[in-house]
Amino acid sequence: xxxxxxxxxxxxxxxxxxxxxxxxxxxxxxxxxxxxxxxxxxxxxxxxxxxxxxxxxxxxxxxxxxxxxxxxxxxxxxxxxxxxxxxxxxxxxxxxxxxxxxxxxxxxxxxxxxxxxxxxxxxxxxxxxxxxxxxxxxxxxxxxxxxxxxxxxxxxxxxxxxxxxxxxxxxxxxxxxxxxxxxxxxxxxxxxxxxxxxxxxxxxxxxxxxxxxxxxxxx
Length: 219
Description:
GO terms for molecular function: DNA binding. This protein is an alpha/beta fold. The protein folds into 2 domains: about 130 residues, Response regulator (Rossmann fold); about 70 residues, Arc Repressor Mutant, subunit A (Orthogonal Bundle). It has 11 helices and 6 strands. Strands 2-1-3-4-5-6 form a 6-stranded parallel beta sheet, sandwiched between helices. The longest helix is centred in the C-terminal third of the chain and has 15 residues.
């Protein structure tokens, strides 16, 4: 059973998430919090699996709660709940290292998928957030590209990661096993010096992974 905490200052959001999650047989909501302070208290005192955190809350924001979790090494997966207008704050959450990022108005199946994904140890980012985040980043060319240290297959995997695809989806596109794709992601993370797929995706877009991929396929 996945033990879940929801933290959002809007009652309708809390109730909506509760309605969605309550239909899942493998999930249980233990706490519903109205602000970040309440969330921190419960996270510190209880054994939880996943915390869904509104990026903007009274007293302590979702970012503040995320920092506490990271600084105190609390073993709980985190999903940031956001809206399109929170783009700048979302970058801050990515730098700190949340496990998942979804829009508050995401479809029910996407919310369930996000919870299951982060619980399994993978990162999750709502596809609609991928273009939103990366629209702020200006692509740039680098003659001594950081991607030169990657194998051709790792570049392909990174390209799909930057487009918001999961390991399972990438495996299907490249006709590989999901385990093989996971091995490629682990290797390319190490080579690029990043900690997770969201940081890898940001780095990829910042350094124009699509342009690099097209150029290499022309050579």
